Amino acid sequence: MVQSECWLLRGLLGFICLLPMCMSAATDLCVPLKTVRESLNLSLRRRFMKMNFPINYTIQVHYEEVFRLRNISRLNMSNEEEPVLKRDLQDLWLWVSQRGIKRVLRVLPERHPTRHKYLSNLENLFRDFEALYNQRNPKDEERELPERILNIWYRLTDPSYEGWKSVTPKSILDNCYRTMLCLFKECFSKEDDNYDYCEVLNWRKGKKTT
Ligand SMILES: *[C@@H]1O[C@H](CO)[C@@H](O)[C@H](O)[C@H]1NC(C)=O
Ligand SMILES: *[C@@H]1O[C@H](CO)[C@@H](O)[C@H](O)[C@H]1NC(C)=O
Ligand SMILES: *[C@@H]1O[C@H](CO)[C@@H](O)[C@H](O)[C@H]1NC(C)=O
Ligand SMILES: *[C@@H]1O[C@H](CO)[C@@H](O)[C@H](O)[C@H]1NC(C)=O
Which segment of the chain is annotated as a signal peptide (predicted)? Predict the structure, then answer.
C-alpha cells in the first residue's frame, strides 16, 4: 500500500516537472554549466592545453575571438540608449568559446590526446549547455542589438575578415573559464561570498586564479 502511494507520488512529481513552471527555473542551467566548469579546471587546462603542446605554441584566431573580462567590462559600460544586456554577453561567450575549441581542434592530428581525451568531450558539453540555454532564454526577435554588439557579430561571422592574432591554446580556455564565472555568477558564487568574478584585478592578484 505504502509502496503504491509512493509510486503514485513519484509519477505526479514527474508529471509536474514537465509543466512550464518547472521549465522556467533558471537555476537548472547551472547543472550543465557546473559540468563545464569541472572540465575547465586548472589542472585539466594545464595538462591538455599546455603540456600537450610544444613550448610557446600558438594558434591564429580572429581578434573578436579573444573575449576577456576586460571586454565584458568595456561592453557593459553604461550606455542609456543602447544598453547591453547580460544575455548579449552570454551569447557572445557561448559562440566565442565554441569557436575557440574548434580552432584548436582544427590544428590537432586525429589521434592527439587533447582531441579525444578532452576537447571532443568539452565540445559536447558546450553543445548540451547551449541547447538548454536557448530553450530557457528564447530569443526576442523584436529587439535590436546594440551597435557595439552588432559590430562584433558582424566581424565574427564575416568570412572575408582578416584580423589575425596569435594566442596560446590554453589562453583560449583560461579566458573562457574566467568570463564564464563572471557572466553566470549566480551559478558559482556562494551566499557568503561577495567575491567579484568580473573584477579583472581579483584575478591578477592571483587569489583565486584557477
Ligand atoms: C580537476 O578535475 C580532475 C578530473 O575530474 C580532478 O582529478 C582534479 O583533481 C581536478 N583539479 C582541481 C584543481 O580541481
Ligand atoms: C617561450 O616564450 C618565453 C616568453 O616569450 C621566452 O622567454 C622563452 O624563451 C620561449 N621558449 C622557447 C623554448 O621558445
Ligand atoms: C576584446 O578586446 C580586444 C582588445 O583588447 C579586441 O581585439 C577584441 O576584438 C575584443 N573582443 C570582443 C569579442 O569584443
Ligand atoms: C554590468 O553593469 C551593471 C550596471 O553597472 C552591473 O550591475 C552588472 O553586474 C554588470 N555586468 C557584468 C557582467 O559585468
Answer: 1-24
State which ligand 2 atom lies nearest to the alpha carbon of 55. Answer: 13
Would 65 be classed as within a structural domain?
Answer: yes
Q: Which residues contact 59 (CB under 8 A, 6 or more apart)?
A: 103, 104, 107, 166, 167, 168, 169
Mean pLDDT for the stretch of residues 28-55: 96
Residue with CA nearest ligand 1 atom 11: 43
Is residue 5 a part of any domain in this protein?
Answer: no
Determine if ligand 3 sits within 6 Å of the CB of residue 152.
yes
Please tell me the distance between residue 18's alpha carbon and the centre of ligand 2 in angstroms: 55
In the chain, how many domains are there? 1
Q: Is 15 contained in some domain?
A: no
Residue 111: CATH number of its domain: 1.20.1250.80
Per-residue model confidence as pLDDT tens digits over 8-23 = 445 544 544 444 444 4
Contact residues of ligand 4, CB 6 A cut-off: 72, 76, 78, 86, 89, 182-183, 198
Residue nearest to atom 1 of ligand 3 (CA): 71
Give yes or no for a contact between 166 and 56, defined as CB atoms under 8 angstroms apart: no
How many residues are given for the chain? 210
- For 46, the domain range is 24-204
Strands 164-167 and 59-62, bridge-based pairing: antiparallel
